[in-house]
Amino acid sequence: MKLLEGKVALITGASKGIGKGIAEVFAQQGCQVAFTYLSSVAQAEEVEKELSAYGIKAKGYRSDASDFEAAQQLVDDVLKDFETIDVLVNNAGITKDTLLMRMTEEDFDKVIQINLKSIFNLTKAVQRTMLKARSGSIINMSSVVGVKGNAGQANYAASKAGIIGFTKSVALELGSRNIRCNAIAPGFIETEMTDKLDEKTVQGWRDAIPLKRGGSPEDVANACLFLASNLSAYVTGQTLQVDGGMLT
Ligand SMILES: NC(=O)c1ccc[n+]([C@@H]2O[C@H](COP(=O)([O-])OP(=O)(O)OC[C@H]3O[C@@H](n4cnc5c(N)ncnc54)[C@H](OP(=O)(O)O)[C@@H]3O)[C@@H](O)[C@H]2O)c1
């Protein structure tokens, strides 16, 4: 028996990186997958094909997660195509790193809008469907940086810490309707987002992690699989660190 057989998941930002990894693991576990992207049109088409090859229904939607109206429209479209949404993974995110001294108002607003406001937008939009079903799992992608803070990432850390507060509040509000809401705080996961970084710096980070390696999208996806499936039926309001022991 596959762990997500019969379920429908909506995953934001799955054209690459961690989101793509989550979509693949969910599809392997029998889940139907609706996913979003913003600019990577060709990559999203490729992901749609790869997911469909697992014998499940998969569809990509070009939709800006930071836009409230677009999120409502997206959920309407997904419901038309898939009939329900059992799992929402709020994964889409960006960085605009720089020291506070150089950080512009736009750098701050953009990161908050895409990383944090998007989670409000999508959670609001799926809420009614999950309330009617009296069931649902919402998974929000935070970061160890949201737990600990990081020099040069005040905007990103604020957005990721905000996600943890939002997650706990939603868990408290919707728990009585059997809707669970948890956050994942990945550590250093090697994706296109981190490919931009200098290799020497990256090796230094790997060496400082107790498990002596960066994480993979699959490492994060497997934690999402647990939170999306009925294996975590009694888990809500938590922030699960997937960081190789980085903050320990
Ligand atoms: N990589 C890490 O080490 C790490 C660590 C902790 C947390 N995280 C978090 O994990 C999540 C995924 O990170 P990643 O490393 O996989 O990043 P990534 O490779 O850059 O992928 C980001 C994804 O988000 C999408 N996206 C960006 N802005 C969007 C928007 N406004 N609306 C809809 N989709 C949007 C992108 O789509 P397009 O390409 O089409 O624009 C892409 O599919 C992020 O929330 C990130 O903060 C990552």
UniProtKB/TrEMBL annotation:
Record InterPro entries: 3oxo_ACP_reduc, KR_dom, NAD(P)-bd_dom_sf, Sc_DH/Rdtase_CS, SDR, SDR_fam
GO process annotations (BP): fatty acid biosynthetic process
UniProt key word Lipid metabolism: yes
Biological or metabolic pathway of the protein: Lipid metabolism; fatty acid biosynthesis
Record bears the keyword Ubl conjugation: no
Domain of life: Bacteria
Catalytic activity: a (3R)-hydroxyacyl-[ACP] + NADP(+) = a 3-oxoacyl-[ACP] + NADPH + H(+)
Ranges for domain Ketoreductase: 7-192
Gene3D superfamilies recorded: NAD(P)-binding Rossmann-like Domain (3.40.50.720)
Active-site feature positions: Y156 (proton acceptor)
Pfam (any one): adh_short_C2
Coiled-coil residues: none
Keywords: Fatty acid biosynthesis, Fatty acid metabolism, Lipid biosynthesis, Lipid metabolism, NADP, Oxidoreductase
Subunit structure: Homotetramer.
Function as written in the Swiss-Prot or TrEMBL entry: Catalyzes the NADPH-dependent reduction of beta-ketoacyl-ACP substrates to beta-hydroxyacyl-ACP products, the first reductive step in the elongation cycle of fatty acid biosynthesis.
Record-stated family: Belongs to the short-chain dehydrogenases/reductases (SDR) family.
Name used for this protein in its record: 3-oxoacyl-[acyl-carrier-protein] reductase
